[in-house]
Amino acid sequence: MTLIVVKKSPENGISNRLLKVALPSDTILLVQDGVLFAMDKDLESKVTQGVKLVALKEDFLARGFSEADSSIPLVDYNGWVELLEQNDKVIS
Amino acid sequence: MKSVLFVAYQSPAGSIWINETFRSAFGMYGEELEPVVLFMGEAVLAVRANCKPEQLGCLPLSITFKYIARYKTKVVAVNEDLERFAIAEDGIEPSWNVTRISESELPDFMHAFDKVVFF
């Protein structure tokens, strides 16, 4: 149960490598420019099966998108805190 | 004793992040924390024997060697990145005492640490 926080955009190679590090019981949280991954309709297929994917709503809306534009669930800051509490390790 | 992995992924030439990664790692000693440093992506260029950022006015990487030796800090580099940048065994600076890991081992390797920080 690890929370992986992705901060850099899909244009940055390290973000794609972070997605590949996730294991089935992990949660990937996309924040900052990492929320741009949420535009990819095929994102789920690019991570290991069983990995939970979420994006930070405040960062997503701040970049001019609407909630309907996201291909994955959105959480707010409170949701982020809950994810930190639910997971025993963090990779960020 | 908790274990912390510091991951450097940015180029050693023109950015501070390799030295900052080690500054943070060395700061862990004395606490109940055991640091390990991982080079990924362009950061693997740092292990080249003739990688000299000081030629650009940046901090030399060699200032870390004394402490790596003293603390026996484990330094790991990703095989595929070393190969991508054509870094052969005889081109590696021995002071790093670098060990290698393959890309496929990264998920389990990273999950073995209590905390992983990307620089």
UniProtKB/TrEMBL annotation, chain A:
Name of the protein described by the UniProt record: Sulfurtransferase complex subunit TusB
Statement: the UniProt record of this protein carries the keyword Cell division: no
GO molecular function terms noted in the UniProt entry: transferase activity
Family annotation (PANTHER family): PROTEIN TUSB
Gene Ontology biological process terms in this record: tRNA wobble position uridine thiolation
Source species: Candidatus Cryosericum septentrionale
Keyword presence, Cell membrane: no
Designated gene of the protein: dsrH
Keywords for the protein's UniProt record, in alphabetical order: Transferase
GO terms for cellular component: sulfurtransferase complex
TrEMBL record, chain B:
Gene3D superfamilies: DsrEFH-like (3.40.1260.10)
A Pfam family this chain is assigned to: DsrE
Record family assignment: Belongs to the DsrF/TusC family.
PANTHER family referenced in this protein's UniProt entry, alphabetically: PROTEIN TUSC
Protein known as: Intracellular sulfur oxidation protein
Species the sequence originates in: Candidatus Cryosericum septentrionale
